[in-house]
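Q: I'm writing a short explainer about Iron ABC transporter permease for a general audience and would like to include a description of its predicted shape. Could you first generate the structure from this sequence?
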Amino acid sequence: MPRARTRPTPVRLGWVLATLGLLALACAASVAFGVRAVSVSDIAAGLSGSTDTIAQAAVSKRVPRTVLAILVGAALGLSGAVMQGVTRNPLADPGILGVTTGSSLAVVCGIAFFGLSSPVGYIWVAIAGAALAATFVYLVGSLGRGGATPLKLALAGAATSAALSSLISAVLLPRIDVMDSFRFWQIGGVGGAETDKTLQVLPFLALGVLLSLASARGLNSLALGDDVAAGLGAHVGRTRLLAATGAVVLAGAATAVAGPIGFVGLAVPHVCRLLVGVDHRWQLPFSALVGAVLLVAADVVGRLVARPEEVDVGIVTALLGAPFFLWIVRRQKVRAL
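A: Of course. Here's the predicted structure. Afterward I'll give you a sentence or two in plain language.
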């Protein structure tokens, strides 16, 4: 196991404050920039209820989009940190382990075969699909000698993601109406944010956050190994179940509302461990904060690089995350947490 990396509390607090500042800047940029830039005075007027067209556009379109990006980024960052802690696998994240693909398949099947149309229904179905996919990947990765090793889990997740993606295509191809409605959703983005849908997903995200943060101390024990954790009085099975449930709820709810967005849950925990150390009591909330910054910033980049069109945030995170994934795989020292 790698040597523990600790950070003094003032250093951790400094990084938290700096990240909060970055989040504020990213949110300001998200509201100000797009197909048409708006000034600070326009934004202030819109927030104060002005009837000006530009100001109203800034508030009615960009503010809900920014809020959704914050929530989805925080959910994916926190979910990835928890999954890496539960599996002790540095390659774990909702996308690589097949969780987001399971959510996508469940939602697409619900729409195509059962006429699913309720936003809350999307969330429940997405969470169920995420749970089934996560359970399947863990069971397959646990087969054979050595149990659920990081390599076996990554391979099982990659194979499961590929299989589920093929099933999604098989369901969609004969159904043009469903494909037209959800082909952009499959890419992953926050462009269609609506306040009502965001409010509906909030309780699920809040539940996932509570379960994840409640497992922080137990994840610290699991990092020492199951036998040591049990010897220290930790309930290994209960901790894994609690943490995994929180991670699955977060990933499923985020996928239901924004589509499958990859690599946020992979990259964010690694950055957070470098900045605040391996203590999950700091790492988990910081991962949520950094995830929010990353997704808001990626959404702004997607709006600016292809004006007057947009690049969905799922594409931007994939372009940023793929090299990061390759760097992690090539690191000799990062074979387990």
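A: For your explainer, you could say: The radius of gyration is 20 Å.
Q: Perfect, that's easy to follow.
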